[in-house]
Each structure stands twice: as structure tokens, then as C-alpha cells.
Amino acid sequence: MTEAAQLDDKGFRIVTKERLEGNAQRWRRFGEPTPAGQTLNADGTLDYGLFGPGSVVWEVLLHPATIVFQYAFQGLMQSTYRPVIAGVRDHDPLSRKTLKGTVTFFDLFERGQRNSGMHAPMWLGDTESAERMWKHLKNIHTKVAGDIIDVGEPEIGGYAAAGARDAMWAALTEMHSMLWLYENLAFRDGKLPHKLSPEKRDQYFTEVAAYCRLVGAPEEDIPHSKADMDALYAKYSHLFGTPATMAIWPDTGEDFAKQMFGLFKRNFHRSQLPALWYAGVLDHGLFRQLAAGSSSGKMRQSMGMGPVRSWFAVLGAKLALPFVWVMQRGRFERHYMRLMWGPDGVKLIQAARKLQTEVTGRKYR
């Protein structure tokens, strides 16, 4: 088939099944990652990377519910941390393609698709794999910086995605959103989703500290308990929220979000329907509504929800639990694992689950 035959009537590449699924190169950077526990430390002990079997982080991360819903929860939580949104608005490929007029639903899908699988080496790989992937992410985020987070509040200053503060919050919002996901959507131990004990929740944040150090977080800010995490939110509360002015490009005064969604419609082709389904209907639609109902009241307030909307969000998440149960069953979970974590991510997850089962006895389908 010629290249021309692979273009739609608007000049964009047709989204085939193969292009939608992607190959390992969509996620892989600096070579294939090595699963935790398959290399040795200098002292001859097994290298389990940042966390390892028996950790609460692996208990949370390896659950089928987390595999399916991780990106939606992370995306929602990070959409309330204003420096992250400023970076997307000013520097993300979605922003650049919006300025060029070429952004499509596949671009939205593919950006989200790469997220989980590109983080997997840091969460489930050996130390070298974790450090290699962080080096790559830090390099590409070095240019993601600006003097203005929000034109509506220029006094709150600028942002730097590779800087200590914003890299720390990127890591913490990833990890805290997974904890909310696990406690609210993960069916386990023959029970409905339920919260961890206060002791295990504190242990979770104690373990997350290793990830914070990897990304260069300020040592004095790194939380080691749920109370520390709450105090950190209070300290940086001015950086959370979703004012409408966040979408305004500082240089032009135009609304990035309105421009992008207008182009999605203008550049749409029927071959993009699967990308629209996964990105628009599920990840940025239904799954994010589940994430909203599973987050804290303060987080929903940061999203702009009043008491009534917040109540309905929580109710909606509860009513959706039968659907959530189905989505974390084997067939559906395997589909999402390959689609959103990629071939390398699948290998990392399977290897980590084997180790976790050996240590804890928890089995995975």
C-alpha cells in the first residue's frame, strides 16, 4: 500500500489497528527495560529497583483495577496542579499541533497511551532501568518551563517541569492518584473496594519517598506519611485549582482548550473512531468521572465542583461499581494492559506479579 493510500480525505494518516496498538518503540527509551529482581546490586543482592515485592506500592500498582484506570486517575489529578497544565498548554505536542492546526483525536489518545508504559520502568524495573527512564523524561522536560503559570494570577510565578518542585508534584500526583484508585475501585480479598489501614497508608507514602528522590524532589518536602502528604497539600495549595484562565496562552491571549477541541472536530475522520472511544469517551470521559467520585472532597473542590456536583460524583462512582468490577476481569484487563502499558510494560507487570505472589501469596489472573 502506498503512503498516499494511507491518508484520509483531509490529509491525515489513517488510524489502523496496528497504528492504534503501537509497537514497543512507542514506549521504549534507551533500550528494553529490565524487570526488577533480574539483576544484582553491587553487594550481590537482587536489585528490586525503587519498591520491590512485598511493598505496599506494588500491592496498589499491580492490581488489575490500577492497570485499567491508572492514566485516567493521574490525568484528572494532574489537571488540578496548575504548573502541569501550564506545561501542557505551552510546550506539549498537543499544544504545538494545535498551533499548527493539525491536532487530531489520535494525538490525544497516543499521548495518554504512552503515559503508563513509559513510567513502568521506574515503578517496576531494576535501578538502572528506572534511572534511564527518568533521565529521558528529565531531558525532554528541561525545556518545559515558563514565567507564567496562569495569566489570571501572574503573581504565583512560573513553572519548570524538570525543576525540583514540579517534578516532585508530578511524582506525587501519580502515586497518590493510584492510592485513591486502589481504595475506591479495587475489588480484592473477596470484598468490595475498601481503604487501607492507616498504618499501610503511611507505609505507602514512606515507600513513595524513593521515587521522589529519584526525580530530585527537595528532601525537606518529601512526605513519609499521610499526615505529611496533607501538610504538603496545604503548603502548596496556591498551585492547585482549575480557573478558566489556565487555558489562555500567555503570548496570544487565545484559549488553548477551545482551539484544540475545535480542531478535533474539524480534523476528524471515521478511522479515528477507536481513538475517540478510548481517549474521549473512556479515559477523558467515563473513567475521569469515576476518578472524580473517588478523589477527596478537596480535590473535587479544586476541580470547581460545588457540594451538589461533588455528591453526585461520589454517588456515580458507587453506582458504577458493577461496571468497574467487569473492567478489572482478565479479558478486559489484558486488553488495557497491552493497549496502555505496551509490550515492555506487560513484561514488567507480569514479572513483578510473579515476585509479589512469591512474597505475599496474592495471585493474579
UniProtKB/TrEMBL annotation:
Pfam families per record: MPAB_Lcp_cat (PF09995)
Molecular-function annotations in GO: oxidoreductase activity
Keyword entries, A-Z: Membrane, Transmembrane, Transmembrane helix
Top-rank lineage group of the source organism: Bacteria
Domain spans labelled ER-bound oxygenase mpaB/mpaB'/Rubber oxygenase catalytic: 58-308
Transmembrane regions: 308-327
Protein name: ER-bound oxygenase mpaB/mpaB'/Rubber oxygenase catalytic domain-containing protein
Organism: Microbacterium aerolatum
Lineage: Bacteria, Bacillati, Actinomycetota, Actinomycetes, Micrococcales
